Amino acid sequence: MNKKLFASFSLLLVVLSMNAQEIKFEEYDLPNGLHVILHQDNTAPVVTTAVMYHVGAKDEQPDRTGFAHFFEHLLFEGTKNIKRGEWMKIVSENGGNNNANTSDDRTYYYETFPSNNLQLGLWMESERMRHPVINEIGVKTQNGVIKEEKRMRIDNQPYGRLFEAIKKNLFSKHPYRWTTIGEMEHLDAATLQEFQAFFKKYYVPNNATLIVAGDINPVQAKSLINTYFASIPKGAAIERNFEKEDPVTQQKEVTFYDPNIQLPAYLYTYRTPSNKEKDAYILDMLSTYLSSGKSSVLYKKLVDNEKKALEVSAMNIGQEDYSIFAFFAIPMGEVTEATLRKDIDAEIAKLQTELVSEEDFQKLKNKAENDFVNSNSSIQGIAHSLATFHTLYGNTNLINKEIDIYRSITREDIREAAKKYLNSSQRVVINYIPEKK
């Protein structure tokens, strides 16, 4: 792309993002502590009803991991008024779609229906919160489902245990040290009473955010929300006092074995600040510069030009309490780990001592603008953003203002973040290698 065309494209992105329509919303709390967010958009006859519970893998006990992900599945089993196996059928028969997902920090459920089924969506989510059926049949069924998921996505997947390797070695005190899917023996050992107690503690109105977004009449929506949710009892206050990690002050090197790979991989991992801090946004931009796309610095150098790596990437994984910055590389042929480490460190050193070029910096800002617009280009995307910004960031209006954080970042900020967080004395090197036969 020539410079004139590039400049025109950059200007277009800026104009589009500056003129992007503000996401208007209303938020309030019910007396039972349920936080409600309404977003009205009558341009298409669809509505998303969603609930984000502030519970994830970090809320589990060390000997009972995997509970939050387990409940992502278990709460589709049925309720007092929805027969077992009927949830998906009700959604599809009424022209909707639905899903759920879990992270270390939260669990999210949603349905999207034609807007004349708003009441149905609210009723179903209130049923999930009010009185789901948690019995031995459902627990046993979902235990089998999750074991199969783990076998397919992790245990039998090449490099499927990368995050396990990172978490176990980068964290030693905080519950981020275990994986979201957890250990199957913990689920096997858990009693029905333990599952029921976990639900009673975390899946309560005062630990949840309800989002209704799309083709709605706010007055009608509020009335329905009051009807279905206001009488659900408030749960006990949840206190979180997770143990803090000691700073990494000396490079540590470990080996992790994976029986499903033939080629080794090398990981250079750093513990970084919460995704609520500005530095997390800077590190996100830094990871984009290093490895987003085939024109990025590391890909162009190690994969395209010098043929030293089959794959290379830099990942910034934002989380509520701590984030993770990690380099990942698979060597080409006889290339050694020492060679890859030297080349990656050389690029880090450049970032620590030099400013990225004005042209590259403009590309980074353009991508941030583009991602911002795309993340809120659908009703489902808007609902998810509203839920996330309230639950994990404590500021719902970041749906409109987060881009201002990216716009405030300077080339000097990128240099300082590299100097502050990406030093060899602050990392764990993981040699991720084939398991010996």
Automatic annotation (TrEMBL):
Source organism, top-level taxon: Bacteria
Domain Peptidase M16 N-terminal: 36-179
Signal peptide: 1-20
Keyword flag Ribosomal protein: no
GO molecular function, a single term: metal ion binding
Gene Ontology process terms (BP): proteolysis
InterPro entries given in the database record: Metalloenz_LuxS/M16, Pept_M16_N, Peptidase_M16, Peptidase_M16_C
Gene3D superfamilies on file: Metalloenzyme, LuxS/M16 peptidase-like (3.30.830.10)
Alphabetical UniProt keywords: Hydrolase, Metalloprotease, Protease, Signal, Zinc
Domain Peptidase M16 C-terminal, first and last residues per copy: 190-367
Family under the similarity heading: Belongs to the peptidase M16 family.
Name the UniProt record assigns to this protein: Insulinase family protein
Organism from which the protein derives: Haoranjiania flava
